[in-house]
Design a protein that fits this description.
With 107 residues, the protein is α+β, with helices and mostly antiparallel strands. It has helices spanning 35-43, 90-99, and strands spanning 3-5, 12-14, 19-23, 51-57, 65-71, 77-82. The structure holds zinc ion.
Length: 107
């Protein structure tokens, strides 16, 4: 069971109140991009064992999208943060590195 805090409205709730939206921080490729880039954007996703960044929507709350950093093995939620970022905030990356020294960092 995940306990997620929505950074938009501040509510902390079980994951059933939220809807998962897949991997976060994807680089989008559209018209004019190569077939390989577009195919990779459309179909290839990371599926790490450990630290992962995901999109979530507060489906039964404020309805807004946000991002969550969590561990896929322990289900520990490190932090949630607004969706309007291209990379995880530095303080969240540092927090994860303290807890998971073996983690190679955000690529
Ligand atoms: Zn919310």
């Amino acid at each position: 069971m995940l306990l997620i805090t929505c950074p938009c409205c501040g509510v902390t709730a079980e994951e059933t109140e939220f809807a998962p939206g897949g991997e976060a921080h994807l680089k989008r490729f559209g018209p004019g991009s190569s077939d390989a880039d577009y195919e990779s954007y459309m179909f290839n996703r990371k599926n790490p064992r450990g630290v992962h960044f995901e999109r979530w929507r507060h489906a039964y709350g404020c309805g807004k999208w946000f991002l969550v950093a969590r561990d896929t093995v322990t289900l520990e939620v490190f932090a949630s943060y607004p969706a309007q970022t291209h990379r995880p905030p530095e303080e969240i990356v540092n927090k994860i590195k303290e807890k998971r020294p073996e983690w190679e960092g955000f690529a």
